[in-house]
Amino acid sequence: MNISRNEQRALHVLALGGRILHERGEGSRKITHVTCVTREGTILSDCDLKTFQALRRKRLIESRSGGPYRISRRGRISVRAQLDNQGG
User: Fold this and answer.
1) pLDDT (tens digit, 9 = 90+) per residue, 1-21?
2) Going by C-beta distance under 8 Å and a sequence separation of 6 or more, which residues neighbour residue 46?
3) pLDDT tens sequence across 27-78
4) Distance CA 71, CA 62 (A)
């Protein structure tokens, strides 16, 4: 499975205990804005709506009972080990 660099960064943050918070449009079920938050509380700027939708489409992230999105079992298997997630 091809996973882009931004998707790998987001998955790595989620694997370390992060989460993706989502907001829905007013009166709509459609997700309009996402924020990827690390375990420490900082925000990952590389995670945008396009990256979120790709991760969701590949079933690498999941939400339970309307909560924040977290890494799925399939995502844990797919994420590559990296020393830091600064890219390169």
Assistant:
1) 788 899 999 999 999 999 999
2) 6, 9, 10, 36
3) 888 999 999 999 999 999 989 999 999 999 999 999 999 899 999 999 998 8
4) 6
Q: Which amino acid is it at 11?
A: L
In the three-class reduction of DSSP (H, G, I as helix; E, B as strand; rest coil), residue 62 is classed as strand
Give the C-alpha separation, 51 to 27, whole Å: 24
**pTM metric for this prediction:** 0.84
User: Would you say the C-alpha torsion 25, 29, 34, 38 has a positive or negative sign?
Assistant: positive
Query: Apex CA 85: angle with CA 46 and CA 33, to 5°?
Result: 25
Asked if residues 85 and 9 have their Cβ atoms less than 8 Å apart, the reply is: yes
